[in-house]
Amino acid sequence: MIEVRHVSKVFTTMDIGTVTALAEVSLTINDNEFFTLLGPSGCGKTTLLRLIGGFETPSTGEIRIDGVDVAGLPPHKRRVNTVFQSYALFPHLTIAQNIAFGLEMLKWSKADIDVRVKEMLALVRLEGYGERNAAQLSGGQQQRVALARALAPRPSVLLLDEPLSALDLKLRKGMQVELKRLQRETGITFVLVTHDQEEALAMSDRIAVMSAGHVLQIGRPEDIYDDPNCCFVADFIGEANLIPGALLGRANVNIVTIRPERVTVGPGDAPAARIAGTVAEVTFIGPDTLYDIGLKDGTRMRARVRGDRGRFHAEEPVTVHWPDEAERELAS
Amino acid sequence: MSMKRTLFLILPAVLFISIFMLIPLMIALVYSFMTSDSYGGVTAPATFDAYIQLLYQQDFDGSLIFSTDYLFIILRSIELAVATTLLCLIIGLPVAWHIVCQNASRRKFLLFLVTMPFWINTLIRTYCWVLILRDQGLINMTLRNLGLIMDPLPLLYNDGSILLGLVYTFVPFMVLPIYSTLERVDTRLIEAAHDLYAGRWQVFRRVIWPLAKPGIVAGSILIFAPALGSFLAPDLLGGGKKLLIGSLIQMQFTSSRNWAFGSALAVLVTATVILTLIISSRRNKVGEVRI
């Protein structure tokens, strides 16, 4: 279990002065959990990961790993391993030597190391690649070596810093499944950093959405998707309509959010409608049709309608409806 | 690239090395097998006398007596060159690593400091050490004025002062190649090693050292070869009391007028250096070194 309590990190640079990368962040990551830190670049997610790994020290606050306060513990004294964004494989060592590195540092016996290296090569499906150099492998293969190297010493936590960002789309989809499988098979806590919300939704048990050094919301992917607690989360995770409350006649509500796929579009004279608008654009994408609808104050609303073969056309007046449970009222 | 173009592009390098290196070396090789003219230069007939002189002294009656005098000079020179190289490594590696760890603008400044001695003539720089180390020099006068010593410390004209002069002259040649190899090293590798339970010493031994090795080999070659043949520091800082091979060769071409023997010694030094290069290239693939 990782407990992060009121952790702040302030960087001091020569040219721009002080930068607050993390502000009073608190969260708990459970054992055997696939936990994701999700946010745009510069939100502090990588800083938090580096704090857990021991590469940075918090300015204030406390981090506990398995109950132990790790303040002052350097990376090599933490049972935490990292998969680096650039993989950081040792160029002067073979694949097998890369995987064995951590085990040698932990003074495992030669025989145990050999067994473990074989095991890890099999786990990441790279049997027979042990004697090659890192430079001879493709990006996806290097990625798997980095995973094997970090998992070999049986850490209690594995940290993954944007591990899939350097891969092309198809490989990335494959590796998502692979990572999920590895996490299940090893039972190790995975902490993933990513800016890709789809990746986060697909893999995580829980997600922490971060922005500008703050954690905005923590929850299961479904909860965060269905029940965002602010505009940023609603907008960042998937697609969201953000409609000013005043437009719906609710003066005391700031913003109402609805997912485009929960919205239904009807003819302009439909009586049960919530709001009226004009179709600005229609996009047919196979199973669904996307409607871009302009509301009366200029706000754009998107609807994603299943099986609707372009019932409405551009410039046509329409009404928009959604069930009560599909909307959320947001204060900010 | 076509063969013709390749030849054309390497032609300047080939010409330069031929004219300024291969041909003089050939001349030295030929001279070493000739008889010295007592007015300088060499004459016929061709003999092995110069090489025999390395190990034997000619007695008054013409018989040869085995002598280790020159052998010792050669060994001492090699010893000093090795010590210089090692000391330069011990000083140069941490300096190079320190520079690599700085931000870009500080790196530039520190590299500038490292290369600054090149702006001043080596002779003048070496003379400055004489002024610093001699009995009435900076160090001795300071210590005497402070009342810490009565008699001046013998800082000049010994092996230590020669070594000091050599290390001082050659240390940039170790810092620069090591810096240029370490500069290309991804700092994430260091973090990765720390992450995989390596302490500071293990990170150095298992990651930094092997990655710096091409630079270390290059620096060692750049220092060992000229240190072996140098005569400036031994002459000025050693006072010429104990001969080193560089000074010995210089003497053969000047005061001793024994060009054949001087050439034989020069051939010997060159052969030693080439042999060292071959051995180290076998072990470390010098071909991969980028300076």
Give an account of the 3D structure.
The complex is a heterodimer of chains A (about 325) and B (about 290). Chain A contains eight helices and 18 strands. Chain A has helices at about 45-55, 95-105, 110-125, 140-150, 170-185, 195-205, 220-225, 230-235; strands spanning about 1-15, 15-30, 35-40, 60-65, 70, 80-85, 155-160, 190-195, 205-210, 215-220, 240-245, 255-260, 265, 275-285, 290-295, 300-305, 315-320, 325-330. Chain B is mostly helical. Chain B has one domain (about 65-290): MetI-like fold. Helix content of chain B is about 70%, strand content about 5%. Chain B has helices at about 5-30, 50-55, 70-100, 105-115, 120-135, 140-145, 160-185, 185-195, 200-230, 230-240, 245-255, 260-285; strands at about 35, 40-45, 55-60, 65. In chain B, the strands form two sheets. Chain B has a two-stranded antiparallel sheet. In chain B, a hairpin with a 5-residue loop joins strand 1 and strand 2. The longest helix of chain B is centred in the N-terminal third of the chain and has 32 residues, at about 70-100. Classes of the chains: A alpha+beta (about 325), B mainly alpha (about 290). The interface between A and B is medium-sized, with 24 and 17 residues.
Number of helices of chain A: 8
Order of helices and strands of chain A: EEEHEEEHHHEHEHEEHHEEEEEEEE
Number of strands of chain A: 18
Indicate the structural class of chain B: mainly alpha
Strand content of chain A: 25-35%
Major interchain interface with per-chain residue totals: A-B, 24 and 17 residues
In this structure, how is the largest beta sheet of chain B organized?
2 strands, antiparallel
Please count the beta strands of chain B (DSSP E, at least 2 residues each). Answer: 4
**Might you state the CATH topology name of chain B?**
MetI-like fold
Q: What top-tier CATH class of chain B fits best? A: Mainly Alpha
Label the overall shape of chain A.
elongated
Q: What spatial order of strands do you see in the largest sheet of chain A?
A: 6-7-8-3-9-10
From the N-terminal CA to the C-terminal CA of chain B, the straight-line distance is: 24 Å
Computed structural class of chain A: alpha+beta
